[in-house]
């Protein structure tokens, strides 16, 4: 009987982990959607800087 209870407890803990991961993903996706323009600007600026530095090194 004790083994069965332990197995059930383990399944409940695993289920909570899945729910937490799903909630974190939903929050992250929401943040990306809210700040999409700002994230795009930051990434574009970073690539522009990399391209400029690479051009300076090659020249």
Structure commentary:
The structure is a single chain. This protein is mainly α and 59 residues long. The protein has one domain (2-58). Helices cover 95% and strands 0% of the residues. The protein contains two helices and no strands. It is elongated, with a radius of gyration of 23 Å. The model has no long low-confidence stretch (mean pLDDT 84).
Keywords:
59 residues, mainly alpha, 2 helices, 95% helix, elongated
Based on secondary structure, the structural category is mainly alpha
- Strand tally: 0
Terminal CA distance reads 75 Å
Q: What can be said about the biggest beta sheet? A: none
Number of domains: 1
Mean of the pLDDT scores?
A: 84
Percent in strands: under 5%
The number of distinct helices, counting runs of at least 4 residues, comes to 2
H and E order: HH
Instruction: Report Rg.
Output: 23 Å
What overall geometry do the principal axes of the alpha carbons give? elongated
Q: Low-confidence segments, ≥5 residues, pLDDT <50?
A: none
Percentage of residues in helical conformation: over 70%
């Amino acid at each position: 009987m004790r083994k069965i209870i332990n197995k059930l407890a383990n399944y409940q803990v695993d289920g909570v982990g899945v729910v937490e991961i799903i909630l974190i993903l939903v929050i992250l996706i929401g943040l990306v959607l809210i700040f999409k323009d700002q994230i795009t600007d930051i990434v574009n600026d970073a690539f522009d800087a990399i391209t400029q530095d690479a051009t300076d090194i090659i020249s």
